[in-house]
Amino acid sequence: MTNEIELLFQDQIHTWPRLARGIEGLARAQTRAVRIDWFEVFIRHIPHRVGSTTAAVDPQSISKRPCFLCAGNLDPEERGIPFSADYTIYFNPFPIVDRHLTIVHREHALQHIAGEFGTMLDLARALPDYFIIYNGPECGASAPDHMHFQAGSRRLFPIEKDTAGIRGAARNYVRNVFVFRDSNRAQLIDSLNRAIESLSEVTNKRPEPLINIALFHRDTEWTVYLFPRGKHRPSVYYTGELTVSPASIDLCGIFVAPLEKDFARISGEDVAAIFEEVTLSDGMFEEVASRL
Ligand SMILES: [Zn+2]
């Protein structure tokens, strides 16, 4: 699958102008590390992400715009690779990381994780150099009306190194996250479904709790990061102080700043405060941890 993706990339970068512009934009992106406690987060300034960061995702705004993931609305040059019976893998024309992919369901149906963990795990196994992500419909997905995942190169993926050896509830990491590691697919899906159910119960949020998920497959084992969220956007977004809206990739340690003025001044303390604010509160996190 990795080879097929590589061939698609070599074709699309020459034939699809919007992707070519995105790849140029990523090449010009500036990245700097900020230290928080014992780990670092990379702040990445990518102007072409401003549309996603500030996307209006309320039902009224969504109903007014054509869905940009539906096959009929794609750029005419855009090509994909089928994955399973239900999905197609495309390049993301607004990349945050190298080889940024969008994996899109063939039907226009709401973003949801129920019944879809198997697809995520299979994607990770088919693409061992990639991480696979899911952004909940109220947690950073800019197309909450159309089921999709994303993927990207694992070459820059700070959380993998930060959490080496950690299993279960990760603490002292400023963002609350559950880490699952398992080689047994069915058992892992069962654990993840139970975690989602516990989060729904504790946060009283259905059909789905507020979540971001990132995972990868290495050797024979999957590692899954489940970020329970307390809220969608931080208060600094609404006050206009910082135009940032963290989703899975940000929580994994690549923090996107589409505006240059934010990139220049954002500090490790700012990032830590935002992570603490948008992930689930310690009290509820510990309540879920005690049930897992
Ligand atoms: Zn659609």
Description of the structure:
The chain has one domain (31-69, 107-291). The strands form 2 sheets. A 9-stranded antiparallel sheet has the order 3-4-5-7-6-10-11-9-8. The protein has helices at residues 2-15, 17-28, 50-53, 59-64, 117-126, 158-162, 185-203, 235-239, 248-251, 260-265, 268-278, 282-291, and strands at 30-36, 39-45, 81-83, 87-91, 101-105, 130-135, 148-153, 168-170, 177-182, 211-218, 221-228, 254-256. 36% of the residues lie in helices and 23% in strands. The protein has 292 residues and is an alpha+beta fold. β3 and β4 form a beta hairpin. The model has no long low-confidence stretch (mean pLDDT 96). Residues 67, 69-70, 108, 146 line the site of zinc ion.
The strand count comes to: 12
Calculate the mean pLDDT score and round it: 96
Bound molecules: zinc ion
Q: Unreliable stretches, pLDDT < 50, 5 or more residues?
A: none
- Biggest sheet: strand arrangement: 3-4-5-7-6-10-11-9-8
Strand fraction equals 15-25%
Oligomer: single chain
Number of domains: 1
Helix content: 25-40%
Shape: globular
Number of helices: 12
Main sheet summary: 9 strands, antiparallel
**Amino-to-carboxy terminus distance:** 34 Å
